[in-house]
Write a structure and sequence with these properties.
Blueprint lengths: L5 E2 L18 E2 L38 E5 L19 E2 L17 E2 L5 H7 L26 E2 L28 H10 L4 E2 L20 E5 L1 E6 L13 E2 L11 E4 L7 E2 L2 E3 L5 H8 L1 H8 L4 E7 L5 H5 L8 H15 L3 E13 L2 E4 L16 E4 L5 E5 L3 E4 L2 H14 L2 E2 L7 E2 L2 E12 L21 E10 L10 H30 L22 E8 L6 H15 L2 E5 L2 E2 L5 H28 L7 H20 L9 H37 L2 H84 L1 H5 L3 H25 L3 H10 L10 H11 L3 H6 L1 H21 L5 H9 L1 H12 L7
Parallel strand pairs: 4-19, 9-13, 9-24, 14-23, 14-24
Antiparallel strand pairs: 1-3, 2-5, 3-18, 6-7, 8-25, 10-11, 11-12, 15-16, 15-19, 15-22, 17-18, 20-21, 22-23, 23-26
Bound molecules: adenosine-5'-triphosphate.
Length: 896
């Protein structure tokens, strides 16, 4: 079977120009507790350079590569070791491994060349445990059967609901419905499982330790699962019949319902009514347990497109499939096994169109696989291969594994086929690498320096559980894309078939020879060579799918013939992750203990206390220690699902709260800053305001100055221009005032003269003495009339006191001594109103008439614009004609 031996060379050569990576340190950092990060990094050790400076709180960083070969020899510890090359790191607790050129923390560094799994393959001489540790009546060969059955009473099972049609099978119930109860039974040793050969297998109360390094010759566990008929075609009927064989709880044979063709026989046939849980219990649970015991185990679903492979493997929320149930089982085993501790890492890849893609790496731009393409390179030796670019994540809870699954499922290619609306167009492989070792060897309680070396020679079990959902085989379809995919799918399935039939052939003939693993990249499933395998072949019972179902059954029959040589691997491997962690834990504990001792001595001696740097270092060491303890799973630190969920919730809340705290801390820091600046600020403000006020004052002053200047000048100018005018006006007003007064006096004078004249005329002397008396009389009348006019006029225009005050109010000097022409005229007139002149001097009458005429004219002038009507009436007054006549009479015409 040398040709079937899959060797993984842990130290393949570096390509030219690449540095020997094994000599480069790996960087470990402290992952934040339960902080599940969903980002991934890829580390190419070959291209990594000197590690950057440390950064706290970044998860552990490992680098790994997996080399695989077929046909190689198994080496031992003395196998020449070629330098390890890694391309992608695996992570702790689902945390990304940082590329080596990114910042890394100040955590202790470890050197790890490769995945423990890869090492396992290179350590073919695991240290077997002493026979005393094996179970009494158990032989290594008998201890690992994979065809166990749980004998159950027959039950009537109702069929599943829509969209599938009902049928009425009366079939035995294959398994109890609750895995937990089944597991309890198994662990208690009181189970009813029986394996071929009559030996019960499983775990005893004393735990896994009892099982030593063993191998088994067993066949693949082949299960045929018939899915319910789709309800889309009511005339369709189940094309297959599954008679129940005597002595078996489940049917083992299947044949066409019409009785034609041959009968097929397998380990178990699951009727359409079977649930995912039942399928898991009968087909996968034993393999999950084997994986936990250190056997590589593979469980895959094979079948035509739409026959229920994904339904079987992934299931639904209400009816979880093999993968989630297996994960739960793994954690349940860890929780219940008190004597071992574990490290789990998960990876998820797909093979699409013959391209291997890491589903835990985000796709490249435009959804290309660039980001996550896994490369398979030739190894150093012929037949060896090196797998680069696979992300492995350290997982510590069911929730974390589910997260990994959901990330990967989200990136799987699906498409619509003739049979399945959401068909998987790729083969997907979900793998969990399980490392475990006995608790007693870890030196957990030891804190001295010697503890560092303890556990280094302890055996570690390393195994892989691979859960595979193959893409469905299919006939050509109308879709070009589907056809192309179909070709690849069929090709890889054909390779798988060939590999298996070759293996079967060699098993039967007990020969060795070439196995065509590499005809398809499905050969990454090289665990097939030494794993326990369970195949669930799904078939669609429809009459229309008979050919495809027969093809599936042929495959199932072929694989059933393969004899497996599963090996439980228990090795002493310093590169095993659990070993590295333990070593690091012991190292950290010793360092911390040394430091504590040193410090307590120092404080006794009165020395100084730790420096800040030392304290920081110690803090880092403590948190790293906590982290490592958390990553190593034990019965005490693995929570049940409920608690885990609760914790996850709390964790989320904590994250939110921490983010808030951070935010608030920033705010506080900002406020503090402002506070520090605050005492300066008011001063600055006051100074600024003062300056502003000063500036404003300046501006106002300047403004006032500038404004004053023109206003003074303006006043002067205005005064210069208007003062003479005002003075003139005031003089005129004064004049007028004087004139009015004079006029008034004149009128009074006239009145008195008139009175005198009346007196004289009443005597009648003058009337006879002087011929002009008639005229005088007439004149008198006229004067009278004039007087009355003047009275009227004066009454109408008599200046008000204010008008008289005008000059004095304004302070304008108006000299009363300045006699106006009017005044003089009036005065002349007045002065000539003396009786003697009047009566004896004709000139006086002439002057008087002239004066009166002049007076009339002045009156008219003085009233221009004031009382045009009055002037007019004066002018028009006939008395002026008379005055004129009188003047003419006296030959003084030019006056007018
Ligand atoms: N046993 C079952 N019980 C109920 N529904 C089922 C069962 N098997 C399959 N189905 C349903 O049939 C449909 C196709 O199933 P599924 O996707 O699992 O097929 P498949 O074999 O994975 O197809 P492909 O290879 O194209 O991905 C799904 O809707 C699924 O829910």
């Amino acid at each position: 079977m040398a040709s079937r031996s899959i060797l993984r060379d842990r130290n393949p050569p570096n390509p030219p120009g690449e540095q020997d990576s094994s000599t480069r340190p790996l960087h470990m950092v402290t992952p934040s507790k339960n902080a599940f990060q969903t980002f991934f990094g890829k580390v190419d050790r070959a291209t990594s350079s000197t590690p950057p400076p440390p950064v706290p709180s970044i998860p552990v960083q490992h680098r790994m590569s997996t080399t695989s070969s077929n046909g190689g020899e198994r080496g031992g510890n003395n196998v020449p070791v070629t330098p390890f090359r890694a391309s992608r790191a695996y992570t702790e607790h689902g945390t990304i491994i940082q590329p080596s050129n990114e910042a890394t923390p100040a955590a202790p560094k470890i050197r790890a060349g490769m995945t423990p799994e890869a090492r396992t393959r290179l350590m073919p001489t695991p240290k077997p445990l002493p026979p005393s540790k094996l179970r009494g009546n158990q032989t290594p060969a008998s201890s690992s059967g994979s065809t166990m059955r749980l004998v159950q009473p027959r039950q009537s099972i109702s069929r599943s609901q829509e969209p599938f049609t009902r049928d009425t099978y009366e079939l035995p119930m294959p398994m109890p419905l609750h895995a937990g109860s089944l597991g309890e039974g198994l662990y208690a040793g009181g189970d009813e499982w029986d394996a071929p050969g009559g030996q019960a297998v499983g775990q005893t109360e004393s735990g896994w330790q009892e099982i030593g390094s063993q191998s088994s010759n067993e066949t693949v566990l082949v299960t045929v699962r018939i899915r319910p008929l789709a309800s889309t075609n009511p005339h369709d009927a189940n094309a297959w019949s599954t008679p129940v064989d005597a002595g078996y709880p489940l049917p083992r044979t299947i044949r066409l319902a019409d009785g034609t063709r041959k009968e097929w026989c397998f380990d178990q046939i699951l009727p359409p009514s079977t649930t995912n849980h039942q399928t898991y219990l009968s087909s996968a649970l034993p393999h999950v347990r084997s994986a936990m015991q250190g056997f590589n185990a593979v469980c895959f679903a094979y079948g035509q497109t739409g026959s229920g492979k994904s339904h079987t493997m992934a299931g639904t929320t209400g009816d979880p499939g093999v993968v989630p149930l297996a994960v739960e089982e793994i954690f349940r085993i860890i929780r219940e096994g008190r004597e071992r501790e574990w490290v789990l890492r998960a990876s998820y890849l797909e093979l699409y169109n013959e391209t291997l893609v890491d589903l835990l790496t985000p796709p490249g731009p435009g959804g290309t696989t660039a980001g996550g393409e896994i490369q398979i390179l030739n190894g150093k030796k012929e037949g060896e291969v090196q797998i680069n670019g696979l992300t492995e994540m350290i997982v510590t809870t069911v929730a974390e594994v589910k997260k990994v699954l959901s990330i990967g499922d989200g990136r799987r290619r699906t498409g619509c086929t003739d049979w399945n609306e959401r068909s998987s167009r790729s083969h997907s492989v979900f793998r969990i690498v399980i490392e475990s070792r006995s608790k007693s060897t870890t030196g957990e309680d030891e804190s001295n320096v010697n503890a560092r070396n303890r556990g280094k020679n302890q055996a570690t079990r390393i195994s892989t559980l691979s859960l595979i959902d193959l893409a469905g085989s299919e006939k050509a379809t109308a879709s070009k894309e589907r056809n192309a995919e179909g070709r690849y799918i069929n090709q890889s399935l054909l390779t798988l078939k060939n590999v298996i039939s070759k293996l079967a052939e060699q098993s039967a003939k007990k020969t060795t020879g070439h196995i065509p693993y590499r005809d398809s990249k499905l050969y990454v499933l090289d665990e097939i060579g030494d794993a326990k395998i369970s195949v669930i072949c799904t078939i669609n019972p429809s009459q229309t799918a008979i050919a495809e179902s027969q093809s599936t059954l042929a495959f199932a029959a072929g694989i059933k013939r393969v004899v497996l040589h599963a090996k439980q691997t228990e090795v002493v491997d310093p590169a095993a992750l659990i070993q590295q962690y333990q070593t690091e834990i012991a190292d950290l504990r010793a360092k911390l203990a040394e430091k504590d001792a040193e410090m307590s001595q120092a404080s006794q001696d009165g020395y100084k206390r730790m420096t800040l740097k030392e304290r920081q270092e110690q803090e880092n060491q403590r948190s790293r220690l906590d982290e490592l303890r958390r990553l190593i799973l034990t019965s005490s630190n693995v929570e049940d699902e409920e608690t885990a969920e609760e914790n996850a919730k709390l964790q989320e809340e904590l994250c939110v709260a921490q983010a808030k705290v951070k935010e608030q801390a920033l705010e506080i820091a900002e406020l503090r800053k402002q506070l520090e600046l605050r005492p300066q600020k008011p001063d600055e403000e006051v100074a600024r305001l003062k300056l502003e006020v000063d500036q404003m004052n300046e501006i106002i002053k300047d403004y006032e100055n500038n404004m004053d200047e023109p206003s003074v000048k303006l006043r002067e100018d205005v005064e210069a221009e208007w003062l003479p005018k005002v003075q003139k006006l005031e003089a005129r007003a004064k004049e007028r005032e004087t004139f009015y007064k004079s006029l008034y006096n004149s009128v009074l004078e006239l009145k008195s003269q008139k009175a005198q004249l009346k007196e004289v005329s009443s005597v009648g002397v003058l009337r006879v003495i002087h011929p002009t008396l008639k005229l005088t009389n007439l004149y008198s009348q006229r004067c009278q009339k004039l007087e009355s006019i003047c009275h009227e006029y004066i009454a109408l225009h008599e200046p008000s006191q204010s008008e008289f005050d005008y000059g004095s109010n304004r302070g304008v000097s108006t000299s009363s001594s300045v006699s106006s022409p009017v005044a003089s005229t009036i005065s002349t007139f007045s002065s000539n109103q003396d009786d003697s002149h009047f009566s004896s001097n004709p000139y006086s009458s002439r002057v008087t008439s002239v004066s009166m005429a002049h007076l009339g004219s002045k009156l008219a002038m003085s009233n221009v614009g004031r009382n045009g009507g009055g002037l007019r009436s004066l002018k028009e007054d006939s008395s002026f004609d008379l005055v004129k006549q009188a003047a003419l009479l006296e030959g003084d015409e030019e006056i007018f």
